[in-house]
Amino acid sequence: MDSINNPTVEDDESPPTILDLTSHQLHDLDSVDLLPSLTELDLTANRLSRLDPRIARLENLKKLSLRQNLFDDAGVQPLSTWHVIADLEELVLRDNQLKKLPDVSIFKRLLVFDVSFNEIPTLEGLSKVSNTLKELYVSKNEVTKMEEIDHFHALQILELGSNKLRVMENLQNLTNLQELWLGRNRIKTVHLCGLKCIKKISLQSNRLTSMIGFEECVALEELYLSHNGISKMEGLSALVNLRVLDVSSNKLTEISDIEKLTKLEDLWLNDNSIASLDGIAEAVAGSRQKLTTIYIERNPCVNSPNYVTTLKEIFPNVQQIDSKMFD
Fold first, then answer.
1. pLDDT (tens digit, 9 = 90+) per residue, 116-132?
2. Taking a C-beta distance cutoff of 8 angstroms, is the pair 192, 216 a contact?
3. Nearest of 170, 203, 171 to residue 188 by alpha carbon
4. Sheet strands (E) in 30-155
5. Which of 27, 102, 137, 225 is positioned for an S-S bond with 159, CB 3.0–4.6 A?
6. Model-level pTM?
């Protein structure tokens, strides 16, 4: 088999810095030249189960993706001793066969760490991960508790969706957090521990019955709460920067507490129990000019044959009502 090299080199004299071997179906890297100039190595979607020891000598390496391979815990264990690549900034182990968090404590400059789509039951060991981390992805695992995250003062994105979490906790030190993704868990109550800078929150497909708990998130721009058991819109009036609100597939009977939201552009209300459009103009008074998208299908109120016309009159700049697009 011919040696595999980086196909994109800026000129004939510059050694390649990026090697992308995505979807080459490799079982090993024996046929690959791993040049010392590499700063990024992408091995996504192969058949690898062990680490090539030559990676340990790539002293310039900043990004390493082992996504969608066959690595188990023993297969990634050598990483914990590879001090030559200790300046690694991005490590992706997504979609493998891990049953615990690997020891990545030697990477003191780590910015992105992704272990989503594995079989990890606990965040134990996360306290050893560098406090330089800005993005942490642990979605689609078996995690039951939010723990060992207190030291991530620089963290901007936390993804823990599709786990077995019941309680929102230990968030109080994440003062720089911008995005929190907790969809598809078992959370019953909103507890954001005073996160005032956060801009995106997803709690879709949980067990919420109330919206109370977002009042201090004054910087919030996007809020996703679909597929819960919420019966009343409340606790939203202080969220003056909100642009996207998704409360579809809940138990709402009316629209309320959003009349002061002047920046609202997208409003998802479909699959609820809203009986009438009476009073909707007052309920959304602040966003009548700004709103461009509204979903309200599969509510009793759409049985009126003129409901689309009514909504277009209320929202003069609307571009989409349900699946209907307008110029």
1. 999 999 999 999 999 99
2. yes
3. 203
4. 40-42, 63-65, 90-92, 112-114, 135-137
5. 137
6. 0.94
